[in-house]
Amino acid sequence: MPDMEDQYLFVGTYTKKEGHVDGKGKGIEILKWNESPPSLKKHFTIEGPVNPSYIALHPVHSVVYTVNEIADATDDFIGVIEAYRYDLENRTSHRISRVSSMGDAPCHVSISNDSRFLFVANYVGGTIAAYNILPDGSIGERVHFHQNIKRTPSSPRQDGSHPHMIRQLPNSNIVLVSDLGTDQLLKFELDQNGSMQITDSLEIGTSLGSRHFDFHPTESIIYVLNELIPSVTAVDISNLNRLEILEHIEIPKDKAQSVINSSAIKVHPSGNALFIALRGISDTEQNALMSVALDIDGKMEIQQQISSFGEIPRDFEIDPSGKFVVLGNQNTDQVVIYELSTDYQLKMLSDTTHVNTPVCFRWFNSSK
């Protein structure tokens, strides 16, 4: 049996060749984590999903939810979300749910604070949806659908609405959506039935491409990561009736001509730092992980940029102890481990793990 303190890392991948990625994954990879010395070892693979590029773990049931990031040139919605039940001891899994995501290229999935609802953001089509989660962890009926029709044709990536993340604010009925296509952070109020009403929208900045966000653990601040012009926007959420920008920092380039896109942001559980992954689209030397110090009020100061030691770092996670960062390089099929110093400086460790096209990480603790 898995030890009661075993830690596992679930890794979403691309399994098909798409226009932006040569997917070579086999499904959702499950890696076993060893802290001393820090290392990851393949445990088993959940096979079946197509392009499981973003995943979420049920906090009670042994169920993983995943998007199938697929799209079609027609107007028909073909995106899919699935649920798989897994058994870590016997290294087995099987699909228990498969439903339409109500859009194309679903790119983010998350679970409500009370584990009653599953949220999905569809990059193509400008749609989000919510579904009941049934008592056994399977996906029930759709309870909400919303389409953002705002259009800001300022660049090829911003030809319309492109929701990129949907998450519920901790200890609140507020659900937030970052829209890369419209440079917006959208605020919804979630009711007991899973329906959501939009109550505010914040314009983050022209042509920034708002991608992902994370929450400060103690301050009423959201940090929004902008992809197209790599930058971070701190948003005040102390007044739940209105979102307000507190601070904005741009990420400097080593070379002015380099094309860099940001990909992921995570706030350290201490609240003393956040980290950003940068993809060197035109210059492999620009693939990096960045450490940003946060002061007592949550204000930002860039303190370190270190190589990702691979190409196209797509996602990363801070380990449950807060001592390490694990990062996946999408195009070089590797997972890299960094050690964190007491002042949140990053040091790459020598051990790496081969995983085909890794793009999303989620920790699982078997003691939960």
Would you give an account of this structure?
- By secondary structure, the chain is mainly beta.
- Helices cover 0% and strands 56% of the residues.
- The chain has no helices and 30 strands.
- Strands 5-4-1-30 form a 4-stranded antiparallel sheet, with no helix packed on it.
- A hairpin with a 4-residue loop joins strand 27 and strand 28 (334-340).
- The model has no long low-confidence stretch (mean pLDDT 93).
Outline of the structure:
The protein is mostly beta strands.
Main attributes of the structure:
4-stranded antiparallel β-sheet; 368 residues; mainly beta; 30 strands
SS strand fraction:
over 45%
Shape label: globular
Helicity, in percent?
under 10%
* Rg value: 19 Å
Sequence-ordered SSE layout with sheet pairings:
Blueprint: E1 7-13, E2 17-18, E3 21-22, E4 27-35, E5 38-47, E6 55-57, E7 63-68, E8 80-87, E9 92-100, E10 104-111, E11 117-124, E12 127-133, E13 139-147, E14 163-168, E15 174-179, E16 184-190, E17 196-203, E18 210-215, E19 221-226, E20 231-236, E21 244-250, E22 260-267, E23 273-280, E24 288-294, E25 300-307, E26 313-318, E27 324-329, E28 334-340, E29 346-354, E30 358-365
Antiparallel strand pairs: 1-4, 1-30, 2-3, 4-5, 6-7, 7-8, 8-9, 10-11, 11-12, 12-13, 14-15, 15-16, 16-17, 18-19, 19-20, 20-21, 22-23, 23-24, 24-25, 26-27, 27-28, 28-29
